[in-house]
Amino acid sequence: MIPLSRIDSTNFAVIPGKANKINSNRLHYRMFDFCLESDIELPGLAVTGAGSADLSIMLCAAGLVPQAGLEWFHEWRDRDGELAICAARRGSEYLLRFPEMADFTFQSSTKVIGVFPQPGCEPHTLNHLLLDQVIPRVLNQLGRLVLHASCIELAPGKAVAFLGNTGQGKSTLASSFWQAGFALITDDSLLLERINQGYCCTPGYPSLRLWPDAADSLVPAGQAFHSVAQYTDKKQILIGPQTNRATPVARQLVAFFVLKEGSRTDELCEVEVTSARGADTAIEIIESMFTLDVDCQATIRRNFDLAGQVLGSDLPIFRLEYVRRFDQLPGVRERILDAVRDHAANR
Description:
9-stranded mixed β-sheet, 5-stranded mixed barrel
């Protein structure tokens, strides 16, 4: 493995058609609230002028990072039980391995992410893994609070976020608001920053990812879809013009809704919104964090502290339960709006 502190342009290799283009001048992007310098073209992000970068993306030789000295400490599996990500350490360096797709390395001292695509990993898949899996976990390792959450703008500068496990309908709910005319902020990763007694939120980049049935039901005709990755049927829409992406903007977070695992049947159509506080909610917030080193005691303590700060703030947090049916979504939207209005009126 190439030590990240000694990576330079002579180390990079690209398999034609299998990895994204290297730009000799390096490309600069905005993601969340930081500047990203990259050898890889990242079409979902806003391009910015060259300058000081908070993180650097360096495309390295295709193939796996060598095993010698690696300490494997965690793995994530998808809802079907299939291995999705493996995590390892080597000294102060971390490795995230996506089987049959790519390896990504990170070292906090250098702020460099090394990208090692495997043969057959297509460019859009590599981008998805980097932007939607690796970078959010890197930010957590650097002490930032990044949640797996969708978010919409209720009014200029005012946002509402939806938190929940994979498959609980965060993207569907956000797309329903978007279809109804509200601005979509993000459907996947959201950076939270404490401001006074509340929070502001900043998206990684504006996009929407849906399963085909939800895309067919909720997305206006004429929208251009892209494949999220080669291993999933999910479709993605990059919100905004392709050639002029907007720089992510921070907004005041006025409410958080935690989606409850559906236990209702089609005969029970009432939408239930209740206040959510306490240990269960803290655990749900922690489980929704993009965490890199899940075994590190310092990281565990920090994540508990971050969750405690959210619960101890003035941010209203609600638990939302409703029937998972597309025809129920207008009523769900109205109940959410009522909860936000009632809370604001009673302050």
